[in-house]
Amino acid sequence: MRNRDGLTLGYRVLWRLNWLLLHVAGPAEQSEDRDPRRRLERERAERVARYRAEQAEG
Fold first, then answer.
1. What is the DSSP string of 14-56?
2. What is the DSSP letter of 2?
3. What proportion of the chain, given as a percentage, has pLDDT over 90?
4. Where do the structural domains in the chain lie, given as residue ranges?
5. Nearest-angstrom CA–CA distance, 19 and 13
6. For position 15, what pLDDT does the model report?
7. CA angle 26-6-45, nearest 5°?
């Protein structure tokens, strides 16, 4: 089984669907701090980092 960095299948599917919908029908490209797609990416990266930190602790 491949390591998914603590992200469940449901989370990954919904995240990708949400990201794609924002890409196709979302707002025009905005600054880095206001872009909803970038916000999704930052939140996902934070979740993965939190999971990896928990794994490193033991």
1. HHHHHHHHHHHHSPPP--TTT-HHHHHHHHHHHHHHHHHHHHH
2. -
3. 55
4. 9-57
5. 10
6. 94
7. 45
Which whole-number Å values give the CA distances from 45 to 25, 28, 48, 49, in the listed order? 23, 23, 5, 6
Contact 19, 37 (CB under 8 A): yes
Q: Could you give the CA distance from residue 26 to residue 28 in angstroms, rounded to a whole number?
A: 7
Residue 37 contacts by C-beta under 8 Å, 6 or more apart in sequence?
19, 22, 23, 26
Cα(41)–Cα(36) distance, integer angstroms = 9
Instruction: Spell out the residues 6+ positions from residue 36 whose beta carbon is closer than 8 angstroms to its own.
Output: 22, 26, 27, 30
Give the separation between CA 8 and CA 1, rounded to whole angstroms. 13
